[in-house]
Design brief:
By secondary structure, the protein is an alpha+beta fold. The protein contains 22 helices and 17 strands. It has a seven-stranded mixed β-sheet with strand order 11-8-7-12-13-17-16, sandwiched between helices. A six-stranded antiparallel β-sheet has the order 2-3-1-4-6-5. A hairpin with a 7-residue loop joins strand 9 and strand 10. It is globular, with a radius of gyration of 26 Å.
Length: 616
């Protein structure tokens, strides 16, 4: 039966592990965009029960007071068109549960039947009480985030699928008879987890400064509501590790991305393909690859040989500037090269359908083994550390996790009707995009931040060994051609804006930071070119969300006194407007600092800014 003209009084309960208020603001914006309703902030479980009285009688994990945020807004209330509920259940980024109250059982049953078709297994129809009838739903992406706990507890692909079913049933626990005891324990464990955003294949590869999945997803939702087209095409012109593509695919939006770094394009493709593998075939192939690697490791240990027939030499694996580092002794480089050569066996002997996956996981193992961080002096100096876990162990563990991820994707397709939309990633320069004009509805991206803040030449430099190990040899060329690189020149005809020129003048007058003058000017010009290209490929009325650091601060080294702050996001917004965009909003989102030892900014609050744009 139709739910046309049927409304529901809804309470949208936020995830317990939302810590920062900037995420609450994004949650409210996303909810406003998708409901088109007046929202009421709810700050206590009692207020939630007053808003939807039928929820008062729920018990266990289903009660609105279960696993809530410690302070601040716990959720939002709104009167919502029932026809919107399937999209809300399937799309919301920050919401754990939706409680929808109807005036009578007939209306609730009609809506429940619709949701069962569009959101199978994610909804429960609760008994009538107090004159109303309640429908409870677990938001799809909340379940996806919680699923990581279920997969971690699984020893096999069949157990992975069983655990997902147990988790879902456990989340609807309303008393001693609600689901299995194991499912209830699993649900409580998952709900208590602090970090659950790296679900499915999001954590396939270590990637510094990667996009937050919830942020990318919420911006895609805000964008599709803004453009008002049924299935808009999404694009990320700085695709990085592919977070936007994976989120768009899971939302059902066709998407594409580009990055000048071939490894970024590889990781992005591998993330999408990880959801398309047959778990049974992948698991069998993983077993064969791991067994072969273990056999070769034993042979290598006994005979000192066993290298891959396509192994690279030390000078090919390690750039000259890396070999000059004092920690990269001949003994260390020889041992690392031996491990990498053994790892390269998997890149030669894998089944064809595993090519990108094995390359990405091999790169990930190397990135975790050889940890390089470019120092903020602008001189190219870097710190170097080495992980203790052998490459083969790290690689094998990741392969086994990939099998469970593929099993989860199969379960999601069969049980929750989640079929990822097509997504592609290509090697391309954001300043000269290889796509036609007017092809894009939504852009959600996070370009490189102003390099003058840290002096880093390029993320590519920190991944040099990974790049070479998977066959990308022109690493130095890649470093030099990246946005805001530390090498190369800028033309005399370049004209900076007044604020850009002010930032460059500060650097020019500071002897210690003078080396950053050219890369800073180059960064401003590169981003200007990128915005022009973004404008060209976007349809009229299109929406763009560009995430940047709010500012780049410079301090006196001895005292940490603030000398100058470059308003990075404001300058990028000006460049976007110069390209033809209309600026809709600058939204500052505070990030939680994970490293309080970094100098000199260890005690500062750090903000990212979401630059929201429209093409007229």
């Amino acid at each position: 039966m139709s739910v046309r003209n049927l409304n529901a009084r809804c309470y949208f309960k936020l995830r317990q592990n939302i810590v920062l208020e900037g995420d609450v603001v994004l949650a409210e914006m996303e909810l406003q965009a998708l409901t088109a309703a007046q929202l009421t902030p709810i700050e206590s479980a009692d207020a939630a029960c007053r808003y939807v009285p039928s929820a008062t009688h729920l018990k266990g994990l289903s009660h609105p007071s279960s696993h809530v945020r410690s302070s601040g807004v716990l959720g939002f209330g709104a009167d919502v068109e029932a026809a919107r509920l399937p999209d809300l259940v399937n799309s919301l980024s920050f919401v754990e549960r939706i409680y929808a109250e109807f005036g009578d059982a007939s209306a609730a049953k009609r809506c429940f039947d619709l949701l069962e078709r569009r959101c199978p297994r994610l909804c429960r129809l609760r008994a009538s009480s107090g004159g109303g009838c309640l429908m409870e739903a677990v938001a799809r992406f909340a379940f996806l985030e919680l699923s990581r706990t279920a997969l971690k507890r699984a020893e096999s692909i069949s157990e992975a699928k069983e655990n997902l079913g147990a988790l879902l049933d456990g989340l609807f626990h309303i008393g001693d008879d609600g689901g299995s005891a194991f499912g209830r324990r699993l649900a409580v464990e998952a709900l208590r987890a602090k970090n659950t955003s790296a679900f499915l294949s999001h954590d396939l590869h270590y990637y510094k400064a990667k996009f937050f999945p919830r942020m990318a997803r919420s911006l895609l939702n805000i964008g599709r509501a803004a453009v008002g087209r049924g299935r808009p095409f999404a694009f990320d012109n700085f695709v990085g590790s592919g977070t936007t593509l994976l989120e768009a695919a899971t939302l059902g939006l066709e998407s594409a991305g580009a990055d000048i770094d071939p490894l970024s394009a590889l990781i992005s493709r591998a993330k999408i393909e990880a959801l398309e593998h047959s778990s049974r075939r992948l698991n069998a192939a993983v077993g064969a690859v791991v067994s072969e690697l273990e056999a070769r490791r034993r042979k290598q240990g006994v005979l000192g040989g066993g290298a891959s027939r396509k192994a690279a030499s030390e000078t090919e694996l390690f750039p000259p500037w890396l070999l000059k580092n004092r920690k990269m002794t001949p003994e260390v480089s020889s041992a690392l090269a031996k491990e990498i050569r053994l790892l390269q066996t998997a890149l030669v002997d894998h089944p064809p359908e595993m090519k990108r996956l094995t390359q990405a996981l091999a790169s990930d193992a190397i990135a975790r083994k050889i940890k390089m961080r470019v120092l903020g002096t602008g001189s190219g100096r870097f710190s170097l550390a080495f992980g203790k876990t052998p490459l083969i162990d790290s690689f094998s563990r990741s392969l086994r996790w990939a099998s469970k991820t593929a099993a989860a994707a199969e379960w999601l397709r069969s049980e929750l009707n989640i079929t990822p939309a097509p997504a592609s990633a290509l090697v391309g320069d954001a300043r000269r995009l290889p796509i036609r004009s007017g092809a894009v509805d939504i852009v959600v991206t996070s370009p490189p931040y102003l390099p003058a803040s840290s002096g880093r030449e390029s993320y590519a430099k920190a991944r040099a060994v990974s790049l070479r190990a998977v066959g990308v040899w022109n690493v130095d060329e890649l470093i030099e051609s990246s946005v805001g690189s530390m090498s190369g020149g800028v033309g005399e005809s370049i004209r900076l804006s007044a604020k850009e020129a002010e930032a460059v003048a500060f650097l020019k007058n500071d002897e210690l930071r003078r080396v950053k003058v050219l890369p800073t000017a180059r960064y401003f010009m590169d981003m200007r070119a990128s915005f022009r290209e973004m404008f060209r490929v976007m349809k009229r009325g299109g929406f763009a969300a560009v995430v940047s650091g709010k500012q780049s601060a410079f301090y006196r080294f001895a005292t940490r006194e603030l000398l100058y702050a470059v308003p990075s996001a404001e300058l990028l917004a000006e460049s976007a407007q110069d390209a033809g965009f209309e600026l809709e909003r600058l939204l500052d989102v505070q990030l939680k600092k994970s490293n309080r030892n970094a100098r000199p900014r260890s005690l500062d609050d750090y903000f990212e800014t979401v630059i929201m744009l429209r093409k007229p």
